[in-house]
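hey
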């Protein structure tokens, strides 16, 4: 087990393997930043292992080839590089799924079965999901598909219903703190990083390792300044324009939630609470939309204008220190 908070997910998986009820399709789902792809890879290694050992024996030919990264009975489908732009595409295309299905019909080379990981599964476009559905309806005997999804609600119900689900959750705060300490991160940093990562330990570690906590603080300062009338929405949007959209929207959502908490404690009006709640919903929606072609700068500007309308008397957690 690579991460201790995967224990219950592994128990679900073990329930299938121990009772010889291994499904043709598994769906590992839960928030990003909790190691779902690592778990999928761990399950794949076990399913391919010639010794059938939990987590893979590490010594058989299959495990050795798997560690080398190019196992002939294993496939991983994710975003491809767009040869025109040189950038990663943001959808999984039908051609990728068709190639995968072709490979699934070939005989195995080393292992007792074939394993394919599709991640993030919710980014399959409609025709890709449709092509996969046909295979889910008529599974190939010796193949296990592992779909990894951050947001199952964005997958067609027809696909969802044909997969056995394995949920991965962020660990309890104390467990996450313990893990970050073992990673050599100080308690103070870990505390702030977990707050910025909404409790997701791998994301918290990334924030610390890449110096992104500074960005988080910067974003919070901009939000405070905006409501105190010390910054305009244009300047605020510009200050945030370099930040990774997915992270930024997570932080904006967390800030809205923090305002709501403080508002509730201080007996803020229903109208104010509703406004903060609406802003949180918008931030969550925009975090999902950031993968689409919608103009980010316009979404951000619009959100910040609405944020500015909240009275400065309703503080963020750290307003007093920051002001
Ligand atoms: Zn092995």
């Amino acid at each position: 087990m690579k991460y201790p908070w995967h224990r219950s997910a592994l128990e679900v998986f073990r329930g299938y393997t121990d009772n010889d009820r291994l499904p043709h399709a598994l769906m590992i789902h839960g928030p990003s930043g909790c190691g779902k792809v690592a778990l999928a890879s761990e399950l794949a290694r076990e399913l391919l292992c010639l010794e059938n050992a939990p987590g893979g024996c590490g010594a058989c030919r299959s495990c050795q080839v798997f560690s080398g990264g190019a196992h002939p009975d294993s496939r991983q489908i994710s975003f491809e590089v767009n040869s025109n732009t040189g950038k990663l595409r943001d959808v999984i295309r039908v051609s990728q799924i068709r190639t995968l299905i072709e490979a699934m019909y070939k005989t195995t080379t080393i292992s007792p079965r074939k394993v394919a990981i599709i991640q993030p599964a919710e980014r399959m476009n409609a025709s890709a999901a449709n092509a996969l559905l046909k295979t889910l309806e008529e599974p190939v005997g010796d193949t296990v598909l592992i779909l990894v999804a951050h947001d199952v609600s964005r997958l067609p119900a027809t696909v969802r219903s044909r997969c056995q689900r394995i949920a991965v959750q962020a660990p309890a705060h104390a467990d996450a703190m313990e893990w970050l300490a073992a990673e050599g991160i100080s308690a103070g940093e870990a505390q702030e990083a977990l707050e910025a990562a909404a409790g997701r330990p791998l994301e918290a570690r990334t924030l610390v390792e890449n110096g992104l906590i500074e960005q988080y603080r910067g974003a919070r300062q901009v939000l405070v300044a905006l409501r105190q009338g010390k910054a305009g929405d244009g300047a605020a949007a510009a200050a945030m324009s370099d930040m990774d959209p997915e992270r930024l929207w997570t932080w904006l959502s967390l800030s809205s939630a923090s305002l709501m908490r403080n508002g509730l404690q201080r007996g803020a009006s229903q109208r104010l609470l509703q406004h903060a709640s609406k802003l949180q919903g918008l931030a969550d929606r925009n975090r999902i939309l950031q993968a689409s072609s919608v103009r980010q700068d316009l979404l951000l500007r619009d959100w910040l204008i609405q944020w500015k309308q909240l009275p400065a008397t309703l503080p963020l957690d750290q307003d007093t220190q920051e002001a």
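The chain has two domains: 4-167, 212-322. Residues 122 and 155 are 5 Å apart (CA to CA).
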